[in-house]
Fold:
Amino acid sequence: MTTAPSPRALDHPARDQIRLEAVLHALSDPVRLRIVRDMAREGAELSCSYFDLPVTKSTTTHHFRVLRESGVIQQVYRGTAKLNALRGDDLDALFPGLLGTVLSAAAAQAARAGGTLPADA
Amino acid sequence: MTTAPSPRALDHPARDQIRLEAVLHALSDPVRLRIVRDMAREGAELSCSYFDLPVTKSTTTHHFRVLRESGVIQQVYRGTAKLNALRGDDLDALFPGLLGTVLSAAAAQAARAGGTLPADA
Structure:
């Protein structure tokens, strides 16, 4: 059985439609930043259920939509699952080093907090 | 006549109170990003009146307050002028390379737009 993308395709900005301001806004929320850190660490497509977030399901859906509509992540339906992946190649082509620098900054901040932040649970 | 800071000191976060999420939020607005780019280019303390922004005075004041409260800029009264400077040293100490990467990304985006964005007027 194949896992081809379902016809329920979701809207994504093309690479040249991605705006720096929207990317920074997407990354400026603690829950969204945590999602992005998890995705960068795993380096694979992840379903929304992978993420154990301290927010409601509808809020989670909202955060994933902001990440998708800003161009930070790609969401694809495979069967009944919605899978998420970072658009690292697109972001690096547009804004070299930005995603990596933000991820390093987030790691540094978490380390200074002694790993006690919810984002590091 | 000296230009010592007036007693009307404004609240700023200490270096260790600066949060990555707040910095990214501050930089995620086109007008605020333009202010930061102008300040980085000039490399000196600038009064709010230096900036020719396409927004009202009260909106301008709001944007400067967001930049100050997030830790991106320092605002000091000197006589009747409120002078603004980037907190580049603080940001680089906390989040190495972040400000420079965002500024480079903003410049790249502006260049792709052919310099026709309002932010480059």
